[in-house]
Amino acid sequence: MSTVGEGAADLLVTNATVYTVDADRSRAEAFAVRGGRIVAIGSAAELSGLRGPETRMLDAAGAFVMPGLVDVHNHHAHAGRAELFELTFSNGASYDQILGAVRAYAATRGPDEWIVGSSWGTGLLDQLGHAQARRGLDEAAGGRPVLLTDDSHHNRWVSSRALELAGIDASTPDPDRGVIVRDPETGEPSGVLLEAAGLLVEEVAQPAVALNAAQQEQASARAIEIVHSYGITAFQDAAISLDQMRALKALDDRGALSAWVVSSMTVNDQIFGYAELGDALIAHRAELTGEHHRPDFIKIFLDGTPPAHSGAFLEPYLPSDAHGAHFHGTTTMPADELLGWLRRTAAQGISAKIHCSGDAAVRMVLDAVETVRAEGHTAPLYQIAHGQFIAESDLPRFAQLGVSADISPFLWFPGVIADALSTVRPAEEVAGLQPNRSLIDSGALVAGGSDWPVSETPNAWEGIEGLVTRADPSGQRSGVLGIEQAITLPEAIEVFTVNGATAMGLGDVTGSLEPGKSADFVVLDRDPFAVREHELHSIRVLQTFFEGEQVFSRE
Q1: Contacts 24+ apart (CB under 8 A), 276-284
Q2: How many Cα atoms are found within 13 Å in the side-chain-facing hemisphere of 454?
């Protein structure tokens, strides 16, 4: 038994099947908590001396107990906002089902109120790219302005009234880094706005749909309630705004932030419409840092999404009428600008998360990090977010340069997103999406993120099952994607616990159950090692604890 400090425990967890995710001791049956930290782990007999008159006892009745799960990539405030204040529907919804959802929601709105919602499936891009589809949206909304986000949250579908308010018509040129999709017969705007084109409507919608400070706090608090129900006790918001950071700091100041939150301060924004970006956002870092809120990263969108042809690739996209046979896509900034951002923030002790959907963007990041490391900046953490496509020669560079792979298995196993990728990229590339086995074998740190609300839930067990089986956990799609890239269950659990914590800079704080770390743990309804691989997604959290205090109970 190993212990930290002296005195009675505040909490003793006994009669448990404890999976510690600690390489030095993977299994135990009991642990003790004092002051929100684990102080001892071992057998019930070994820990009995830590029981005092005020010690709370948790008899786990043999249940499986493990560290709180870690989500290295979500957009919690957007998810909470959608839950409380917007229209939501499944990304598998058909065109008619979306119109039905809009029609029902419109019945609850005033005649001129905006309807904002998500998420339509990327696979609908072609169908929605016609004026006739937009007119169907107009009818369902009763002429109201409508702004609907796709499943990648990079693209928008809007109504005629929204286009009118934004001043978009057939003569409006495409904005930088965006495309106004035109009806193929009439040339008029179809209502589909790719990447930065969506900001034209976001800007006019913002005054009507902006949340006040209290609502921002409600959105964050609600999102944290939801992640607790999935056993998540630490997460990284992947692209945050100033208002969202202020909400987290306000919650933290009054003792209401019951999760470890690392924020990624947005540098360039082609999808959200944030007011403050880059240096203007970083300027608030010190004042918004709290006990549990750590704005320690910047976020750079280096490219977009492959289905919208905005991902940057080494080899060309499949031929298309719009882009020809030799289109590779482009990055949002040149290599020297990216390097400049990494140099300046490294000097300030700030790490970076960089969105890369194509392998050319991945290579640009690795090249920039190689330069920064050679210049002596060894401390900053670097994450390549998504990295679904990686050139084979670049795989070993992750470990060599200390770059973490922030992966979202929710986004690549057989489903609507993989189907959409298959329409623009060669089949062999799509089959090898997310080369996790190769990354781990090369020594890379692989950390798991949900990208919620791009994924419909932040249920890490869906991601874990996908990592192990390379199949669709829901069973709605058959087949597997690159079974040779499957990883083991222990490895997949590490991806969503200690690896995520390490990638976020919290490796010494959480991610495993060992003395000195925060007492963040979950009680599960089943032992993951005792269920079939294709049942992992159905594991449920019975209780979630943060710093030794219960923050969720399914009862």
Answers
A1: 276/241, 276/242, 281/241, 281/242, 281/245, 282/345, 282/348, 282/350, 284/242, 284/245
A2: 23
Say how many CA atoms lie within 13 Å of 444 toward its Cβ. 28
Token reading at 336: 């020297």
What pLDDT was estimated at residue 69?
98
**So what's the pLDDT on residue 517?**
98
Pairing of strands 69-74, 232-240: parallel
Q: 3-state class of 134 per DSSP? A: helix
Residue 319: cis peptide before it, omega within 30 degrees of 0: no
Q: Can you give the pLDDT at residue 1?
A: 56
Give the pLDDT score at 152: 84
**Can you give the C-alpha Rg of the chain in angstroms?**
23
Instruction: Provide CB contacts within 8 A for 24, sequence distance 6+.
Output: 514
Q: Are 495 and 464 in contact (CB under 8 A)?
A: yes
What pLDDT is recorded for position 70? Answer: 98
Which residues in the chain land under pLDDT 50?
none
- Give the pLDDT score at 2: 55
Distance of CA 165 to the CA centre of its chain: 32
Amino acid at 78: H
**What is 259-289 written as a DSSP string?**
SEEEEEEES--SSS--SS-THHHHTTHHHH-
Helix %, strand %, coil % of the chain (to 5): 35, 25, 40
DSSP 155: E
Instruction: Extract the tokens encoding 183.
Output: 């009806």
Q: Are 75 and 452 in contact (CB under 8 A)?
A: yes
Which residues does 49 contact at the CB level (< 8 Å), separation at least 6? none
pLDDT, position 5: 61
Cβ contact 444:485 at 8 Å? no
Question: Helix, strand or coil for residue 151?
Answer: coil
* Tens-digit pLDDT profile for residues 514-547: 999 999 999 999 999 999 999 999 999 999 999 9
| Single-letter amino acid, residue 74 | N
Asked whether 327 and 318 are in contact (CB, 8 A), the reply is no
Nearest to 161 by CA among 108, 122, 107, 106: 106
Contacting residues for 317 by C-beta, under 8 A, at least 6 apart: 306, 309, 323, 327, 328, 329, 424, 425
**DSSP reduced 3-state for 118:** strand
What lies within 8 Å, CB to CB, of 310 at 6+ separation is 154, 177, 194, 195, 303, 304, 329, 357
Instruction: Give the separation between CA 389 and CA 482, rounded to whole angstroms.
Output: 13
Q: What is the pLDDT of residues 49-80, one digit of tens each?
A: 999 999 999 999 999 999 999 999 999 999 99
pLDDT of residue 23: 84
SS3 for 73-85, per residue? EECHHHHHHHHHH
- The answer to whether the beta carbons of residues 64 and 35 sit under 8 Å apart is no
Which one, of 369, 533, 537, lies nearest residue 450 by Cα? 537
Q: Would the pTM of this model clear 0.70, i.e. be above it?
A: yes
CA distance 105 to 88: 10
